[in-house]
Every structure is written in structure tokens, then in C-alpha cells.
């Protein structure tokens, strides 16, 4: 028996019934998508990553070898896993999460990463942290929202406390690529011992990889054995 007042209980039941009977609308085209955020037709059209890509940063290469940037200046993370290429309409999906506050998209994002991650071994998930001012303005950390669903599916803990973003920086998207590494230098702080830990660092998009690399540097300085970066989408340089 419900403990809710009768009118509220009836409304809750009606809402559940409607949700079970009526299909959802695809976020991209508006067609019926059942219980999914994106209908099968639109999902099939989402831009894939190239088959041949750098094993470290997931940028496109000719034969799947390390890219020139990773050869010249190897990143602190060990591998990058991405679900899609950052292009239309994936960019619209990510923007709807970050700036449209459509938090259901975070669950969809997490589900896209389950298959490439399920056979890899990790000790914990670390969402890329936001500075507290950015978190206050936005109201949520999209990386943490993705990590929560992903952690539940992978049966792993989410670490929201060990790594902090202690320095507010201008948005990376507003800066030329050469300035992005300098922009995030020293932006993260680790408040724990990560010795021997195999970490899965979660973010929504990787562009130049500067932010993920600086966070991975901090994690490695505090003992992390490996850092795998998992993102919904990877922006290709070319």
C-alpha cells in the first residue's frame, strides 16, 4: 500500500503507466524511440571513430600506430577509449547534456562506453572534476553523472573526493590549441594515496587532451599505476 496521499499516489501510478505505454521521442529526430534516448536509425548514423587510430590518444593515424604528438610528447594517460567521433550530431547530444541540463543523456552516454570497457580491469572510476565555481554555475558535473551510471554497470566504485580542481581556468574551447596545456597546468590536486591503482578517468569529450593529460599527470604523481581515459566523443585533429 502506498504511503503517499491518495491523489499523489494516483498521479504517480498514472505517470508510470503512461511511461510504460507511450514511446519516447528520439532526441535527434523526434521519432518514436521506445525506451531509448536515440532511435535506432539515428543511432546508426552517429559518427564512428576511424578504425585506425593512436592507441594512446585515439586520434586518427594511418596504420593504428602512435600519432606524432604522442611520439614527441607522450601523455601521462595510458590509453583512450571513445564511443564516437566528436561531430554532428554527437556534439548536439553533448551540448544538450552540459548546457541543456538534460541529465538523462548522461545515462545514455555511459551505456555507449560499457562494451569497450567491460573486459578491462580497473579499481575505481574518477570523473574529471569541475572547479567549485563552475560546478555552482552549472549545477552538476556531467562527467560525474556519466561515471555514476557507468560504475553501476561495471560494478566499480566512483571516487568523487580524491581529485579536486583547485584552480579556475578559462574554458578550453575559448583558447587556441597551443595555449590549452598551459591553461590547465597545476589545475588539479590529489588528496589521497593512489599507489598501484588502475584508474578509469571519465569525461564527456576529448579535444586536445590537455585537460585529461594534466589530470592524469596528477594521478600518476600520487601513485596511480595506470590511467585510462574514457570519453563519449573524441575530436579528431584533421
From TrEMBL:
CDD domains: PRTases_typeI. It comes from Dechloromonas hankyongensis. It comes from the Bacteria. It holds the Pfam family Pribosyltran. InterPro entries: ComF/GntX_DNA_util-trans, DZR_2, PRTase-like, PRTase_dom. This is ComF family protein. Residues 18-71 form the Double zinc ribbon domain. Residues 143-234 form the Phosphoribosyltransferase domain. Belongs to the ComF/GntX family.
Amino acid at each position: 500500500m502506498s504511503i503517499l496521499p491518495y491523489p499523489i499516489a494516483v498521479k504517480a501510478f498514472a505517470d508510470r503507466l503512461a511511461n510504460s505505454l507511450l514511446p519516447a521521442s528520439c532526441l535527434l529526430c523526434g521519432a518514436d524511440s521506445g525506451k531509448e534516448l536515440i532511435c535506432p536509425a539515428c543511432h546508426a548514423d552517429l559518427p564512428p571513430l576511424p578504425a585506425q587510430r593512436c592507441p594512446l590518444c585515439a586520434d586518427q593515424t594511418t596504420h593504428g600506430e602512435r600519432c606524432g604528438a604522442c611520439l614527441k610528447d607522450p601523455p601521462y594517460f595510458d590509453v583512450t577509449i571513445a564511443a564516437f567521433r566528436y561531430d554532428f550530431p554527437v556534439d548536439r547530444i553533448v551540448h544538450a547534456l552540459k548546457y541543456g541540463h538534460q541529465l538523462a543523456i548522461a545515462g545514455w552516454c555511459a551505456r555507449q562506453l560499457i562494451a569497450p570497457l567491460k573486459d578491462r580491469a580497473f579499481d575505481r572510476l574518477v570523473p574529471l572534476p569541475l572547479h567549485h565555481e563552475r560546478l555552482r554555475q552549472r549545477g552538476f558535473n556531467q562527467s560525474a553523472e556519466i561515471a555514476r551510471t557507468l560504475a553501476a554497470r561495471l560494478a566499480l566504485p566512483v571516487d568523487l573526493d580524491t581529485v579536486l580542481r583547485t584552480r579556475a581556468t578559462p574554458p578550453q574551447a575559448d583558447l587556441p590549441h597551443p595555449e590549452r596545456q598551459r591553461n590547465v597546468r597545476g589545475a588539479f590536486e590529489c588528496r589521497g594515496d593512489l599507489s598501484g591503482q588502475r584508474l578509469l578517468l571519465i569525461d564527456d569529450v576529448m579535444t586536445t587532451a590537455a585537460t585529461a593529460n594534466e589530470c592524469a599527470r596528477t594521478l600518476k604523481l600520487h601513485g596511480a599505476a595506470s590511467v585510462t581515459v574514457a570519453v563519449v566523443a573524441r575530436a579528431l585533429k584533421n
